């Protein structure tokens, strides 16, 4: 459930390093959901904030953000 995890204020600074990102991508490729969870938790606020600033509609922004991570 992603409800409640959306960030509605300013975009946060990202703390994941390039190496951590690459490691998490490797985990995803191996079928490990923890890699996806780490990337999701890191990027969800920024992706949602960017999408919402374009769409100006919270529900649509949530849908598009969810699709971004699912696909």
Give a brief description.
The protein has 71 residues and is an all-alpha fold.
Q: Note the overall shape.
A: elongated
The DSSP helix count reads: 3
SSE string, helix = H, strand = E? HHH
Radius of gyration from CA coordinates: 13 Å
End-to-end separation: 16 Å
The secondary-structure class comes to mainly alpha
Overall average residue pLDDT: 84
Q: Biggest β-sheet: count, sense, barrel?
A: none
Q: How helix-rich are the residues, as a percent range?
A: 55-70%
Low-confidence stretches: none
Tell me the fraction of residues in β-strands, as a range. Answer: under 5%
Number of strands: 0
Which characteristics define this entry?
71 residues; 0% strand; single chain; mainly alpha; 3 helices
Folded structure, characterized:
α1 packs across α2 (33-55) and α2 (33-55) runs antiparallel to α3 (58-70). The model has no long low-confidence stretch (mean pLDDT 84). The protein is an all-alpha fold. The chain has three helices and no strands.
Q: What is the secondary structure topology, with strand pairs?
A:
Blueprint: H1 18-29, H2 33-55, H3 58-70
Helix pairs in contact: 1-2, 2-3
């Amino acid at each position: 459930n992603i409800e409640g995890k959306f960030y509605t204020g300013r975009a946060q600074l990202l703390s994941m390093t390039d190496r951590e990102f690459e490691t998490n991508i490797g985990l995803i490729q191996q079928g490990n959901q923890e890699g996806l969870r780490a990337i999701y938790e890191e990027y969800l606020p920024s992706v949602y904030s960017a999408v919402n600033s374009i769409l100006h509609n919270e529900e649509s922004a949530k849908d598009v953000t969810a699709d971004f991570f699912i696909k």
